[in-house]
Amino acid sequence: MSSVVPAAVTPPGGDPPAAAGAIAARSPLELFWRRLRADRVALGALIFIGLLVLVAVLAPLVVKLAGAPAPNVRSTDALDPTFGSATGPSADHLFGVDNLGRDVFSRVIYGARVSLEVAILATGSAVVAGVVVGMLAAYHGGWVDTVISRTLDVLLAFPILLLGIGLASACSLGDGCLGLIQPGLGVVVVVIAIATFPYIARIIRGQVLSLREKEFVEAARSLGASDRRIIFRQILPNLVAPIIVYTTLVLPQNILFEAALSFLGVGVQPPQASWGQMISDASAEFEDAWWFMFFPGAALVLTVLAFNLVGEGLEDALHPKARK
Amino acid sequence: MNDLRLRRARRPLPSRPLLLGCVATVALVLGACGGSSSDKKVAAGGFASGLPTDGQKRGGTLKLLGSEGFFHLDPGGSYFQLDYMVTYATQRPLYYFKPDDPKTAVPDLADGPPQVSADNKTVTVKIKSGIRYGTNKKTAITGKEVTAADVKYAFERGLNPSVANGYEGVYFPLVGADKAKGGPISGITTPDAHTIVFKLTKPFGATTARALVMPLTVPVPKSYVAPLDAKQPNPYDAQPERQAFTGPYMISDYKAGKTITLVRNPQWDPKTDFKPAYLDRIEWTIDADPNVAGRQIFSGTGLANADTPTAGAVKRFATRAKDRITFTPLGNRFVGVNTQRKPFSDINVRKAFAAALDRRAMLLARGGPLVGQLATHFLPPTIPGYDEAGGAKGTGADYLANPSGDPAVAAKYMKLAGFPSGKANGEKVVMLGENDSPAKETAQITRDAIASLGFDVSFRLLDQSTLYSKFCGVRTELEKIDVCGFAGWLPDFSDPYAMLTANFYGKSITAVNNSNASLFDDPAVNAAMDKAALIADAGDRAKAWGAIDRRLVDKVAAVPFLFDNVANIASKNVQGVVGQWIASWDLAYTSLK
Amino acid sequence: MARYILRRIGWTVVLLALVSAVTFVIFYALPSADPAVLRAGRQASPELVAQIRARLGLDDPLVVQYWTYMKDVVLHFDFGFSYQSGESVRAAIVSRLPATISMTVGALVIWLATALPIGVISAIRRRSLLDRVTMTGALLAISAPVYWLALVALYLFASDIGVIPIFDGANTYVGITQDPVQWFASLLLPWLVLAAGFSAFYARLLRANLVEVMGEDYIRTARAKGLPERRVVWRHGVRAAITPIVTVLGLDIGVLLGGSILTESVFNIPGVGRYAYDAIRTADLPAIQGTVLFAAFFIVVANLVVDIAYAFLDPRVRYG
What we know:
Helix content of chain A: 55-70%
Shape of chain A: elongated
Radius of gyration of chain A: 23 Å
Number of helices of chain C: 13
Number of domains of chain C: 1
Strand content of chain C: under 5%
CATH class of chain C: Mainly Alpha
Oligomer: heterotrimer
Distance between the termini of chain A: 32 Å
Helix content of chain C: over 70%
Order of helices and strands of chain A: HHHHHHHHHHH
Largest interface: A-C, 50 and 59 residues
Largest sheet of chain A: none
Strand content of chain A: under 5%
Largest sheet of chain C: none
CATH architecture of chain C: Orthogonal Bundle
Shape of chain C: flat
Order of helices and strands of chain C: HHHHHHHHHHHHH
Structural class of chain C: mainly alpha
Number of strands of chain A: 0
CATH architecture of chain A: Orthogonal Bundle
Radius of gyration of chain C: 24 Å
Structural class of chain A: mainly alpha
CATH class of chain A: Mainly Alpha
């Protein structure tokens, strides 16, 4: 997909007039909550995500309750004895087994952990890095801005998936990159963060640039406020909305990104279960063994869909478009 | 032959003489022995036999689907299964194995059997007259007759860095070769245009004579090729359509990584050759998707596999098209652990690992009992010495007694190794594997076995060529790794020397392209191998090497787990003939129906 | 204006040089197959390997290797030879380009042809059943990984293995010059799968933009003036809503021309994306360099075109 185009975002300017007396105006936050609560689809998605997080955190318990074996246990008895191939959904294995005899249901549950962990960590780091870099560039201007902008340009010129694959491969061997990042989950998080933060940085930079010229910032400056105060008191609060919107747009994309990296073999390493990797394993035999291609994929679709719905809901709640 | 048997295809090759008097088909696995011409089409189990039959039709185009490229199409460098398929269809070595008789080498370019002197240091071969070179474009050597000097040059160029033959030094210890780097070798002489004499530095004649089936013996005309040999990369290899061809077919077109096309060689005279060469044309796709290829071969026409089919394809054919799939036994597979590094330098830890490994799961991961039988030692059923080493039952070692592994035995040996609890304490073990099925799956099973002993396994999967050319084949890297890829071997010709030395002989350990994956270097075993190499009598040789095989198992030089069966699949109108000695299609005998 | 264009072009060139430098550094660190060892045989002597290394220039310092590489690229348009197959990288990319272009153009046509009407109709009939259904479907299509969709599509519709055999399955691609009919048939399913996600995205984007535009004052004015609704929508509404779409379209085309790795892999279409992925997997450095540069080129040029187009439309940008 192309770079994300965020909806037009305008910072709420100033406080609403407090009417003296009878009618108390609602603060933007209250309005936001009201609108969100009314959006049942988004709420439903939010609940789904909450459940998903719960399941991911409590994975071992869930698996035990379902009576399924642990995700990395290979039961050779579940394999076809003549061909060694996978068998489908049955009484013992709700979603069937994969080509090594591992329970697919178990692995889908544990895969949720990987997907959520990676997406949250990677998105979080990308957002933090993007905000810092973007603000730095926009606020200081001058040569700092030029250097940062040009660097971002270079990063943005890279085909993102190739960059991800390359970095993941390069950093996955032995001592990892610079000896710091260890192979496996850590590498994937860092790779995705590096690949996605430039977009955020660019947009934040644009936001801060326009904010910088606004009157209330000038006013604060003329009153003698320090840079730090301006950043934290004036600019950051106005960035909260676009940051939230952006995060919810990017998070599901990063879930898909991790899955794509795992699908291509450079993400999380076996035997750790990841949805993308399970689909990749399945692609060799999917016409006979559809189950271990289908279930992880369906899990991915539902998860990403839920995040997308929540993102949409948040965006609508923050900036309701004119309703006729 | 080199063991790069990863990624379906790059299977090394070699011959397989069957000393059991039966044709090597799955019949072997199922215990029967077949073979009259009436039931040639069907082997035991209902699978196709892959043998030549009477009344095969001439003409037509065969399309091969493969996903692996070639290593070297230059006959001087050709050393992998796919390379061999092309080389043996387009060129004529001194000797050849007919598809149905992998134990008897018949003269191809040669005129009669090789003469080995009494002192075993001289081998003399006479070559046929009237064999001419065919080329795509008309050149100075088109239509010229092959002479003994061409065979001499073939050996000389093998040592040229631009050709870099991988086995010349091993089987042809020629006088004067140690100083030659592409220039003349004094140990090869040609008293006349049709006689060639090899002088050896040691009494190795019996083995050298058997090695005359190798592609290195393919004649190469010096006047035409010497200028090409001076270039790097060598055009004789990179642009194989420029070669001088002696076989029934020639390479008419080659697009690296995509396709190769073989057409009839107009200069090939069927009167000088026993090969029928039914097909008119062979079109070989090199970048097909292996999963899809299996399906296409199943439902299409005029198609056959080039690389090893996937487990899914084998299953499909074995259940729904038994008469279009053949199984041919070939070679062994084992897990090599670094015997020069802790923890596996301790023989008790190795025994524990052998006991912990679920070999039955490894077999299932590769496709089940159809693709191989569990191995209990290293010499496969088709190599002399197999029975002497224990046959199917094995040596009786307790750590190999249970095919699914035996945790109790494993614990016992761990205790003997100095881990009183029967498990290690999280010591680090480094393992690298290949990231393609089925090596990916077997690597995970191996990892599990090591982890079950209590070790902390650092596990990483890489692509095949990186894994071997950068890590497992390079001694300095291998020294830091405990389990590097998987090993297996296909003998260059049916002899236990060719089967065991590459992997387990101390002097086989080289700095690059190392084939001794376990870095196994036991002086007693080395000495025994040196002695056994010189034995001429077949029975004594088998006994001696069988004893060596037992020793290797006792010392756990590696953990054997499989004697392979190679599957080959074809569409319904293809009469595929398998060269039993390399377990792949013999293009000079295959036809359409 | 001309100065702006020149400046941007100048920066594009510098950008590409930087991209190639960064690529060199990243992929040089990959544990690549040693090409010298690949070319040598079993039990090759270290001297032989060293000889081959010297000939391939593998022992030179990184900077020297990079410089040699860039010189070849700029002066001779030579991207070196693949470590794996020995084939010229430029030839390999050029021969795979038609497949990638076929994929891009076909998918483009389909997704535009579907997204535009759906986006517009959904915007007009906001909150109708049609709107809700299509927008939800679109959201589903965006949420599904393209390779999974491809596998499901193959499982359901491929002529060789599918439950309902309609379309040609994977690995059936031939060049348009070889067999136009087969070319078309083999690309139908990949086009549909690739277009699905984009179509969904563009439909939603167009709808969102159009809804916003339709709320503007000048639309109300146009209506008040008595213009027919259709004119209002198409002449004024869609025209305004489509500008940001063109931007994104340009960027997407740029990205797709670099090769859609995932779709090409599943359908086994011999395009540049597949080649790039195989190159990275086998750490074939020259091929990696070539394909990354190639893909970056399209991305950067697409950006350039879009920027220049904007400069025409909005003078303020030129002085930014």
